[in-house]
Amino acid sequence: MQAVKRVFVIGLDSAPPELLFDKLLNELPNIKKLLESSIYGPMKSCIPAITIPAWIVMATGKTPGELGLYGFRHRKKGTYNDIWIAHSLMIKEKAVWDYIGEAGKKSILIGIPPSYPPKSINGYLVSCFITPDTSVNYTYPKSLKKEIENLVGEYIFDVIFRKDNRDEVKELIWKMTKKRFEIIRYLIQKKEWDYFQFVEIGLDRVHHAFWKYFDENHHLHEPNNKYKDVIPEYYKLLDKEIGKTLELLDLDETAIVLVSDHGIKAMNGAFAINQWLIDEGLLKIKNPEILKSGKQVRFEELQVDWSKTIAWAWGGYYARIFLNVKGREPKGIIKPKEYYKVRDEIAEMIKGIKGSNGEKWDTKVFYPEEIYPETKGDKPDIIVYLDNLNWRAAGTLGYNNPYLLENDIGPDDAVHSEYGIFSLYVPGMKESKKITLTIYDFAPTILKLFGIETNLKGKSIFSS
Amino acid sequence: MSEKKEFVSVSIPVELYKTIEKRIKDTEFTSVSEYVTYVLKEVLESLDEEDKEEVFTEEEEKKVKERLRALGYLD
């Protein structure tokens, strides 16, 4: 396989193969045409299948354990729940753009999480949605910020979609996406680059905000509702913007990649996991009356009796379970030599959680040291996919029972699925070919396109 | 009562040893080992500090946490 001159990567957060490569493909002429001469198929995400760490796992080819990055937040050492938010300076492993930067090649990176604060690279960078707001410096070099604002006015990193005003959410997602593509096309034409990658977060937001209106099988779906076409319309917007963008590229010298960090699917419900831990006697609180108030309770409002607590949880699109280990936690009670036994017992209890009608759940539990070659940083004791990610984990409490059929904090009807998408067009390709790969294969594949070999755990798709 | 410290030997090139010996002459460091230990501790601590570098101000952190909560990533 000959090295290519340039690589252009279109990152579509949460794009699932079921929609992009199948159900909606006939409505997306530009993507369809690209796939006709691409190698493409489902790409298995990392564990956990979530935006941070998945995009940087993809770019570095390293596991969350090697990165020390297990999600958006991590505990400050020596505390129970003082957290720090993931940021770019935590990333110590080389990403694709670092490897090629050493070979003198330039990169343009837009919105790849985590990229705030902006790190210096050989090229240009616009940070991602963990940027506090547009008042800070969010570009490398600093001067790029003015160029962006001259072009599109105020830049939009992200849209808060858990609002009842769906029309406003839709409008903002469209506005954000159009601005981002305008910047992308400007940078393609005005700056020197060999590698270009952006992540469009709007797709994830439109999925979460409008899934129940679109998915006829969702338990909250109402037929012929006002917003049933919003998701397909957004895909068409993306296709149109991608088409306009591809026109600026020389397909005789540029490889084109479409990729996502994970997929998306209907949320069956949210399970109040801390409430369950209290019911099981594993989490003890001094103010149990707060749970009978009829109001939703946040974990911070609990007066946890740490001297009697075995375990507690963090919710989100997957759950993290922490054990209260003596010598490790401030008021730990589990003796270190009993750690593995206690952890196994709790894992079995979690796997045994049944659905609200007693139905069997396909819950997955993972021990970090078993799935990563190294476990740096604040690793959780157990990673949990409730009913294989069909159920979110809600950290809030105060419910009659832990099965919530709607999300606990604002409208959100989708969860992440394990398989995202990957497609690669290389100059000269005339036919399509199907493939299945993992997120760890992305970096070796891109680097191979630049003629760079690595010892990463994944394999370039050209190596078989 | 002072703690009994344990030490291990580490090898460094002779040239480096001689450079350090020259450097610490007329300083408070009484041996190359003492100087090397001091420098390595400083380096390791600064690497730790890099990780704890304040990326967000208190106000910015609060804003980002609220946003991440509103996006469903935190609860």
Strand content of chain B: under 5%
How many domains comprise the coordinates of chain A? 2
Count of helical stretches of chain A:
13
- Give the second-level CATH assignment, the architecture of the largest domain in chain A: 3-Layer(aba) Sandwich
Name the average pLDDT of chain A. Answer: 95
* SS summary, helix count of chain B: 3
* End-to-end Cα distance of chain B: 49 Å
Description:
The complex is a heterodimer of chains A (464) and B (75). With 464 residues, chain A is α/β, with parallel strands linked by helices. Chain A folds into two domains: 6-267 and 416-449, 3-Layer(aba) Sandwich (Alkaline Phosphatase, subunit A); 269-410, no CATH class. Helices cover 28% and strands 19% of the residues of chain A. Chain A is built from 13 helices and 21 strands. Chain A has helices at residues 17-23, 29-35, 51-60, 64-67, 96-102, 144-152, 166-190, 202-214, 230-246, 273-279, 339-351, 368-371, 442-449; strands spanning 6-12, 39-44, 73-75, 83-85, 107-110, 123-126, 139-140, 195-200, 254-259, 263-266, 269-272, 311-314, 319-323, 364-366, 382-385, 391-394, 403-404, 414-417, 419-425, 433-434, 437-438. In chain A, strands 1, 2, 5, 6, 7, 8, 9, 19, 20 and 21 form a ten-stranded mixed sheet that branches. Chain A has a four-stranded antiparallel sheet with strand order 12-13-15-14. In chain A, a hairpin with a 4-residue loop joins strand 12 and strand 13. Chain B is an all-alpha fold and 75 residues long. Chain B has one domain (14-70). Chain B is built from three helices and no strands. The longest helix of chain B is centred in the middle third of the chain and has 20 residues, at 32-51. Chain B is elongated, with a radius of gyration of 22 Å. The mean pLDDT of chain B is 82. Classes of the chains: A alpha/beta (464), B mainly alpha (75).
